[in-house]
């Protein structure tokens, strides 16, 4: 017969809980292992739930601001029409002031739009895809804008890359923001290289421009929300890029020097084998 676990002492008294633990070391070890393996998955789910709650609150606040802003804009347009009918000198002065207010409202609306996109980034629709195809599609769609700004797009795409899991729409936003950043860094035109390659189980994309570059102080802050060196900039473009890349399990880094251009490198995990 199999040996039963003891539940009493030699004199017939019930074993204390700690005594029972001492009598079953394997069970105690199993319990500790279960606790230690307390799923990182659960921690991620809790973090995502907290983020979703904060994002919902922030998004609601942004909408509450946007509603009266729309009313302000509508009334500004009516005031601009009225001001245009006034005597020339007085009307021109009022018109100029109203146009300043209108521009600031448009700037605030752009910040709110960027912020709403920023807080919704965690909602990914992932598909298994070839990064080269995504880059090719983006180049085709951005070519007219590049030509208009005198920027040459120079792709160098490695063959036989491992597939990656991407939300193609959000990743297109990454490429667009980085390309527009390059346009702004090259007001007189230049070259933007897009290079793909693979390093182990990571698929990499480099975007290298021949623009003005950045000093270390600026470079260290480019992924901070609301930081911008461009007048009228929302300061959310590059932070959104970083958030999207990180939501895909990737990383992004930047190298830059004044007068020597800028390189952004995105590293993405290769998709699991099917």
What keywords describe this structure?
274 residues; alpha+beta; Heat Shock Protein 90; 2 domains; two-stranded antiparallel sheet; 8 helices; 7 strands; 53% helix
How would you characterize the overall build of this protein?
- The chain has 2 domains: 80 residues; 143 residues, Heat Shock Protein 90.
- The N terminus is likely disordered.
- The radius of gyration is 29 Å and the shape is globular.
- Helix 5 runs parallel beside helix 6.
- It is an alpha+beta fold and 274 residues long.
- The strands form 2 sheets. It has a 5-stranded mixed β-sheet with strand order 2-4-5-7-6, with helices on one face. The chain has a two-stranded antiparallel sheet with strand order 1-3.
- It starts with 16 loop residues before the first helix and ends in a 5-residue tail after the last strand.
- The relative contact order is 0.09.
- Helices cover 53% and strands 16% of the residues.
Secondary structure blueprint with pairings:
Layout: H1 17-23, H2 25-36, H3 40-83, H4 88-119, E1 127-129, H5 131-148, E2 151-157, E3 164-166, H6 168-185, E4 190-199, E5 202-209, H7 216-219, H8 237-247, E6 251-256, E7 262-269
Parallel strand pairs: 2-4
Antiparallel strand pairs: 1-3, 4-5, 5-7, 6-7
């Amino acid at each position: 017969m199999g040996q039963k676990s003891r539940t009493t002492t030699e004199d017939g008294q019930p074993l204390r809980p700690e005594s029972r633990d001492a009598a079953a070391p394997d069970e105690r070890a199993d319990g500790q292992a279960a606790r230690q393996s307390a799923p990182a998955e659960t921690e991620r789910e809790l973090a995502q739930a907290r983020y979703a709650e904060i994002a919902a609150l922030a998004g609601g606040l942004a909408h509450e601001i946007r509603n009266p802003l729309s009313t302000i804009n509508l009334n500004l347009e009516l005031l601009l029409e009225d001001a245009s009918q006034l005597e020339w000198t007085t009307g021109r002065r009022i018109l100029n002031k109203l146009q300043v207010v209108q521009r600031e409202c448009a700037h605030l609306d752009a910040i709110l739009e960027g912020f709403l996109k920023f807080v919704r980034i965690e909602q990914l629709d992932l598909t298994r895809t070839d990064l080269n195809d995504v880059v090719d599609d983006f180049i085709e769609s951005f070519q007219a804008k590049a030509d208009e700004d005198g920027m040459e797009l120079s792709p160098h795409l490695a063959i036989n890359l491992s597939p990656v899991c991407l939300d193609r729409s959000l990743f297109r936003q990454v490429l667009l923001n980085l390309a527009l950043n390059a346009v702004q860094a090259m007001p007189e035109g230049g070259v933007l290289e897009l290079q793909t390659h693979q390093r182990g189980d990571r698929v990499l994309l480099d975007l290298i421009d021949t623009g003005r570059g950045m000093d270390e102080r600026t470079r260290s802050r480019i992924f901070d929300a609301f930081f911008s060196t461009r007048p009228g900039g929302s300061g959310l473009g590059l932070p959104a890029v970083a958030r999207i890349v990180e939501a895909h399990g990737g990383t992004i880094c930047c190298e830059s020097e004044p007068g020597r251009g800028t390189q952004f490198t995105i590293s993405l995990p290769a998709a699991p084998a099917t």
